[in-house]
Specification:
alpha+beta, 46% helix, three-stranded antiparallel β-sheet, Molybdopterin biosynthesis moea protein, domain 2, Hypothetical protein af1432, binds fe (ii) ion
C-alpha cells in the first residue's frame, strides 16, 4: 500500500481505503475500487490531494496499454532534466535574495533596488530557451515553503512572457516583470498564521488578507519607483466589471500593467497546489477563466494570454476524463479549453463532446 498524489493517479490503480470528504464525511470512493479517469476526476472535484492505493494495478485498455502511453508524466520528465536542475538552483538563489530584500523594504523602509531585482530575474529567463520552457519551469517551481515569494517570482516571470506575447518592447516587458514581482509585497504584513492556514479563512481573516493591495501601495508610496509598479500593487485585485477590490474600479480606471498582473496572478494561483486543493491542469484553469467570465478581464489581454497558453500545449499528450490518451492537434478559438484531440486514427472534438474534458497533460 502507498500514498499517491491525486495528480499522479493513473486509471487501473486500486483504492486501498474508503475515501471520505473531509468536512461533510460523505463517501466519495469505496475501498477496492479500480480507478478510472472519471473516478480520478471525482477526487479532483472534491479537492482530495492524495489517497492510499494498493501496490498492484489493473491494466485498463485505452489507458495504460495504449501505444501513446508515456509512462512518466510530462512534468515528471521535466523535473528530471538537467536544464531544470540548473534553473531550480538559480531560482532558489533568487528566492532567498527576494525574501531578504522584500523584508528590508517592508520592515526597515529600505529603498527598493529595482535594477538588481530586474537583472537577477532576466538571468533566470535567459536560462530557458523558449516560452514553452519557461512556462514548464514555472509550473514546476512549487515545492518551496516560501509560497508568497515563489508566487511573486512566478508572476514576475509570467508577466515578462505575457508582455512578449503582447509584442511590447523589451523595456515594457521588464517593467511588467517588476510589476508582477512586486505586486504582493503587502502580503508580508498579513500574519503567517492566516497566509498558511489550511482550510477556509473566517470572514475576519479574509478582510485582513484583502488589505494587502492598500498596504503594498503604502509601502511603495515614497519609493522612487515607476508609477506602474505602485499601481499594480494597489490594483491587481480590481476587475474590469467593477467586481474587484479595494476600490471597485472599472476597466478604464485600472492601470494596464495591473490588468496584466491580475491575469498572471490568477493563473499562477490556480496552477499551484493550495492547502485546500491540488494544482489544476492548465486546461482546467482556462475553463475556469471562461466560466467565471472573461468580462472580468480586459479582452485585449485575456484572449492573448489564454491563446498562448493553449498553443504551448499543441502536440502534447493528454489524458481525457474517460481515461483515453491522445494528442492535442487543433485549438478551438471559440472554446480554448476544448481542443481537438487525436486518439489513434480518430479525432475527438472536445467542443462537441461536452461530457469529456482534459484531465492531465502527460
Ligand atoms: Fe494579491
Ligand atoms: Fe498574487
Amino acid at each position: 500500500m502507498r500514498r499517491v498524489y491525486t495528480s499522479e493517479l493513473i486509471p487501473g490503480m486500486i483504492t486501498a481505503e474508503d475515501i471520505y470528504h473531509y468536512s461533510s464525511n460523505q463517501l466519495i470512493l469505496p475501498k477496492g475500487l479500480v480507478l478510472t479517469g472519471q473516478s480520478i476526476t471525482r477526487l479532483n472535484d472534491y479537492s482530495i490531494i492524495s489517497i492510499r492505493v494498493e501496490d498492484d494495478t489493473v491494466s485498463i485498455p485505452n489507458a495504460s496499454t495504449n501505444d501513446n502511453y508515456v509512462g512518466e508524466t510530462y512534468f515528471k520528465q521535466i523535473r528530471s532534466s538537467q536544464e531544470f536542475t540548473k534553473f531550480k538552483k538559480k531560482f532558489q538563489e533568487e528566492i532567498s535574495e527576494v525574501k531578504d530584500h522584500f523584508n528590508d523594504v517592508v520592515r526597515k523602509n529600505a529603498p527598493i533596488d529595482v535594477d538588481n531585482l530586474m537583472e537577477k530575474s532576466l538571468a533566470l529567463i535567459n536560462e530557458t530557451h523558449s516560452s514553452v520552457d519557461l512556462l514548464d519551469m514555472i509550473h514546476n517551481m512549487r515545492d518551496f515553503d516560501d509560497a508568497t515569494y515563489v508566487h511573486s517570482l512566478n508572476v514576475g516571470l509570467l508577466c515578462h512572457l505575457f508582455a512578449k506575447w503582447l509584442r511590447m518592447s523589451d523595456e515594457e516587458a521588464n517593467l511588467a516583470m517588476m510589476c508582477g514581482l512586486l505586486h504582493d509585497i503587502g502580503k508580508l504584513m498579513v500574519p503567517d498564521a492566516i497566509l498558511k492556514k489550511p482550510g477556509r479563512l473566517t470572514p475576519d481573516e479574509y478582510e485582513q488578507v484583502k488589505e494587502h493591495p492598500t498596504n503594498g501601495y503604502i509601502v511603495f508610496l515614497h519609493q522612487n519607483i515607476d508609477i506602474h509598479i505602485k499601481n499594480s500593487a494597489l490594483m491587481h485585485h480590481e476587475r474590469c466589471d467593477g467586481s474587484g477590490y479595494p476600490m471597485q474600479l472599472k476597466s478604464e480606471q485600472i492601470d494596464p500593467f495591473a490588468k496584466m498582473v491580475a491575469i498572471a496572478d490568477v493563473y499562477d494561483a490556480m496552477t499551484s497546489v493550495r492547502p485546500y486543493r491540488p494544482a489544476l491542469c492548465p486546461f482546467k484553469v482556462i475553463s475556469v477563466f471562461e466560466e467565471e467570465g472573461l468580462q472580468r478581464y480586459d479582452p485585449k489581454y485575456i484572449l492573448v494570454f489564454l491563446e498562448h497558453i493553449v498553443n504551448t500545449y499543441i502536440g502534447n499528450t493528454v489524458r481525457l476524463s474517460d481515461g483515453r490518451i491522445g494528442k492535442i492537434v487543433y485549438i478551438n478559438k471559440e472554446a480554448l479549453s476544448l481542443p481537438t484531440v487525436q486518439i489513434g486514427e480518430k479525432f475527438v472534438d472536445l467542443a462537441k463532446e461536452r461530457n469529456l474534458t482534459i484531465e492531465e497533460i502527460l
